[in-house]
Amino acid sequence: xxxxxxxxxxxxxxxxxxxxxxxxxxxxxxxxxxxxxxxxxxxxxxxxxxxxxxxxxxxxxxxxxxxxxxxxxxxxxxxxxxxxxxxxxxxxxxxxxxxxxxxxxxxxxxxxxxxxxxxxxxxxxxxxxxxxxxxxxxxxxxxxxxxxxxxxxxxxxxxxxxxxxxxxxxxxxxxxxxxxxxxxxxxxxxxxxxxxxxxxxxxxxxxxxxxxxxxxxxxxxxxxxxxxxxxxxxxxxxxxxxxxxxxxxxxxxxxxxxxxxxxxxxxxxxxxxxxxxxxxxxxxxxxxxxxxxxxxxxxxxxxxxxxxxxxxxxxxxxxxxxxxxxxxxxxxxxxxxxxxxxxxxxxxxxxxxxxxxxxxxxxxxxxxxxxxxxxxxxxxxxxxxxxxxxxxxxxxxxxxxxxxxxxxxxxxxxxxxxxxxxxxxxxxxxxxxxxxxxxxxxxxxxxxxxxxxxxxxxxxxxxxxxxxxxxxxxxxxxxxxxxxxxxxxxxxxxxxxxxxxxxxx
Length: 505
Known about the structure:
alpha/beta
């Protein structure tokens, strides 16, 4: 976190990201990326900035105050959080002069050309470097004093990122509290944030909450997939309903601060994301899940949804991270949190559905939704029936004598129905799910006279539909089966209204 390493610690030409119009639309809620540099073939600062500009990314967080990077960011307008690395914390926390010198070299020398908006003093110090905890607040105060001397304190905030593990008993959020061991640090730290108009920086990783829960945290709950009301997590003290881990952790931070009598300090999420690849012990570190998490996260931020405790109050968030970092030690997943490979190739096509369309740097948008290899044929049949029924897919090309009838089997027919639904829905995140029997592919499944929507550019939308592709919890639909020999007793249908105004599950 700097995730697992600090706090508890394919590469695919396939798919990703599309920040442009989305990032441009964000003013109230900042949506940015972290830029790590543990990359064997790290792009030059000018190449990094070119990628940021191409994707219209307007907010970044650096893990240091690299001079070349700050010079490359000059005159771009991109808002920058710079960091005091943990290995420099001790000197700054023990010497006002050292702090002043650091600010002079790394901040004053670059503003206003480089739009530095915040300084992160250390990273997850309480959990990663507990021996330095006693000087953390002093380091923050010394940095702030140096900003005052340079007349920059009103423009640049000072804070420090915390691992979410500093919060104990995080659910229900209303009962959460900071680890009391850190009260001698946390109380003066919060006083400092309050008095300077700064914010609590928090690293939020639903992936690890899910992995460490031993099955208690459902995958859908971690990925922002819509849940039926009876599956939502309810805080019995406040009766607030939680549909995702991200919101619950943020509200746990708000309640933890209020427990210490601080009620007006905003939370900024300095790190969050999902790995696209993992070891055999991490089966849910996949491209599909990384795409789903980050796509849904971005939409959540864009909509200024807020949290159940503070609805409508934007939570500025920084995705971890811009590049895969192949030099990071540890598990495979540690190296695969990036949106891009070091050569600028997107790791996956990030589906951003705030406007009902897919925005991607892959301008061809040539992705397809097909049945997952090895999936249960009965489940595929059920999903096929749903797509051709409540899903409102025109399945007439699958009828005998029509161009997509052959080959006459459930997988081939499901491929066509799934892909048609996927493109009618604008390839929105989660619309290629179908109870887990579908997956996104870059291989065109068209054959002979049977042209799939993704290959022909017939990319319609159903933005007003209330039908969602079948999910685990749904009512039944008794519709005709195209392949009675595979038919299942009932079909999964979710007829809930749109959650947050767009499709994702």
